[in-house]
Design brief:
Order of helices and strands: EEEHEEEHHHEHEHEEHH
Oligomer: single chain
Helix content: 25-40%
Number of helices: 8
Bound molecules: adenosine-5'-diphosphate, magnesium ion
Radius of gyration: 18 Å
Length: 239
């Protein structure tokens, strides 16, 4: 496990779009931190920068105190879960989950053990021999989570992982995520555009708008004591 620190990071794309402007944010070691904001406010860019999938123009990203600006994505030792599950359609669930371990040359016995443990944790033991096309959306998302868990990364990055699910399943999966975090205790930076999701999932929530963090606080305080009119409007605070 490790803290994730974004220290005054900025990202401008080649077309001149400033996606992130001087953003600072810290997920403490073992914390589940939510980053919430409207579409286009820079959430995915921030996560992708932490993962090393975007090169930042300014600032520093630290994982477990180590500056990772120049560390290649596979060497950052963090796992990302997306809204599109990005499973390999031709591989079974078991092989999808074991894939990152094979790439890292983890011994077969150890890989099997980790896949079995993660499958039990997520309640997908009975699905291991199926292919992604034979799974529901919720099951696919569990497999995607399983693939992240087996790597035993020092942090998770989740980019709207529930947004492709129907409303009922989304609510159920929120509870499962909270439980999963309690059991694994891995530092998680979780991105969503959904205020209700942010309020239910996070101990601490960072509200982002226009590439700038507006406030970081408990859900209760964001609602009761918004730092500015933007946060008040976004969280639906009483006037
Ligand atoms: P969010 O995830 O909060 O919806 P993004 O981080 O995807 O927001 O995008 C932030 C801003 O950066 C948006 O204005 C978006 O259009 C822009 N953007 C994202 N990716 C690119 C890109 N590859 N090239 C140019 N602009 C981009
Ligand atoms: Mg996004």
């Amino acid at each position: 496990m490790a803290a994730i620190e974004l220290d005054r990071i900025s990202k401008r794309f080649a077309d001149g779009t400033v996606a992130i402007d001087d953003l600072s944010l810290t997920a403490a070691d073992g914390e589940f931190l939510i980053l919430v904001g409207p579409s286009g406010c820079g959430k995915s860019t921030a996560l992708r920068s932490v993962a090393g999938l975007e090169t930042i123009d300014g600032g520093e990203i630290r994982i477990g105190g180590e500056v990772v600006n120049d560390v290649a994505p596979p060497d950052r030792d963090i796992a990302m879960v997306f809204q599109s599950y990005a499973l390999y359609p031709h591989l079974t669930v078991e092989r999808n989950m074991a894939f990152p371990l094979r790439m890292r040359k983890v011994a077969a016995a150890e890989a099997n053990r980790r896949v079995a443990d993660a499958a039990a944790l997520l309640g997908i033991e009975a699905l291991l021999q199926r292919k992604p096309g034979q799974l529901s959306g919720g099951q696919r998302q569990r497999v995607a989570m399983g693939r992240a868990i087996v790597r035993q990364p020092r942090a998770f990055l989740m980019d709207e992982p529930l947004s492709n699910l129907d409303a009922k399943l989304r609510v159920q999966m929120r509870a499962e995520l909270v439980n999963l975090h309690r059991r694994l205790g891995v530092t998680t930076l979780y991105v969503t555009h959904d205020q209700v999701e942010a309020m239910t999932l996070g101990d601490r929530v960072a509200v982002l708008n226009g590439g700038i963090v507006q406030q970081v606080d408990s859900p209760h305080r964001l609602y009761r004591r918004p730092a500015n009119t933007y946060v008040a409007g976004f969280m639906g605070s009483p006037p």
